[in-house]
Design a protein that fits this description.
Blueprint: E1 2-6, H1 10-21, E2 25-30, E3 41-44, E4 62-65, H2 74-94, E5 101-107, E6 118-119, H3 130-143, E7 149-154, E8 156-158, H4 164-171, E9 182-183, E10 185-187, H5 188-200, E11 207-210, E12 216-217, H6 218-229, E13 253-254, H7 257-261, H8 271-281
Parallel strand pairs: 1-2, 1-4, 2-3, 4-5, 5-7, 6-13, 7-11, 8-10
Antiparallel strand pairs: 9-12
Helix pairs in contact: 1-5, 2-3, 4-6, 6-8
Length: 282
């Protein structure tokens, strides 16, 4: 299989590494494609500049769009999640490419639920903020494009180099949120494996949620980390606390039933295995 990974960052590099190890040909598209895993072929381009997309690798079987926004503002989100995919699809069509699958990575942040309810692929994605609406528009652009397409909505990605909560618990700066602060996550390695799995399926669904098996209250995650680190559990947030990583965000419980049902298995089925591996390696 010949695969182009457009936006070869945190998850894309891990995907590229796994594809090459499996005997596939992989190209990493980035503005500055330095430091790609061994065997991954670089392709320097800017997804927001269609002229740089001329001469894409020929005969692509699959294309993965995994670019991330450069900042939390509407122009950055439009560039990454809407203009970029549109330019990429247009370039593929202009060059006579016929990939059998285009996969775009999106976010469970497009779900607006704030009441701790369960959501799945049938749940409405009607984000209240403009950034979420741009992401949904980008999903629709890919699904409505000229090639068979799949959207994978990933939850919070953690893994090597992304240890925010471990660091905060260790430093004593974490605060325990009130009950009902549900979180969803997926380890970087499982995110990359999920993409590779969906590329290999004969007849995938158009939409999947990429999370581990167990949505968890943030308080439980923090208590687990404190116990493993041998430090005091985080104190509760002050009454009426404003700010913090959970503020202003919906809390929901995301189901991975469809992804699991497609035959996918997780290396890190819950935060315990994932964070446990990170702590063991530190």
């Amino acid at each position: 299989m010949r695969v182009l990974i457009a936006g070869c960052g945190y998850v894309g590099r891990e995907l590229a590494l796994r594809l090459v190890a499996g005997g596939h040909a992989a190209w990493g598209l980035s503005r500055h494609p330095a430091g790609l895993p061994p065997g991954v072929q670089p392709f320097a381009a800017d997804l927001t500049d269609r002229a740089t997309l001329r001469g894409l690798p020929a005969g692509l079987d699959a294309v993965v769009h995994a670019a991330a926004a450069n900042g939390p503002t509407e122009p950055f989100y439009r560039a990454a999640y809407l203009d970029g995919p549109r330019n990429l699809l247009a370039a593929l069509a202009e060059q006579g490419q016929a990939p059998r699958r285009v996969l775009t990575v999106s976010s469970t942040g497009v779900f607006p639920q704030r009441d701790g309810s369960w959501v799945d692929e049938a749940s409405p994605a009607a984000p209240e903020d403009v950034l979420g609406r741009v992401m949904v528009e980008g999903e629709q652009a890919v699904l409505g494009g000229p090639f068979p397409a799949v959207v994978l909505r990933l939850a919070g990605i953690y893994g090597p180099g992304r240890t925010l909560w471990i660091d905060r618990v260790r430093e004593g700066t974490a605060r325990r949120p009130p009950p009902g602060s549900w979180t969803n996550r997926i380890h970087r390695d499982d995110a990359a494996r999920a993409i590779a799995h969906l590329l290999a399926l004969d007849a995938p669904e158009p939409l999947y949620i990429g999370v581990d098996d167990e949505p968890a209250e943030l308080a439980d995650v923090l208590a687990f980390l404190a116990e493993r680190l041998g430090v005091a559990p985080p104190p509760p947030e002050p009454d009426g606390a404003a700010g913090g990583p959970m503020r202003g965000r919906g809390t929901k419980r995301c189901s991975n039933r469809r992804l699991r049902g497609s035959g996918f298995s997780l290396l890190y089925p819950t935060y315990r295995e994932g964070y446990g591996a990170l702590l063991a390696a530190s």
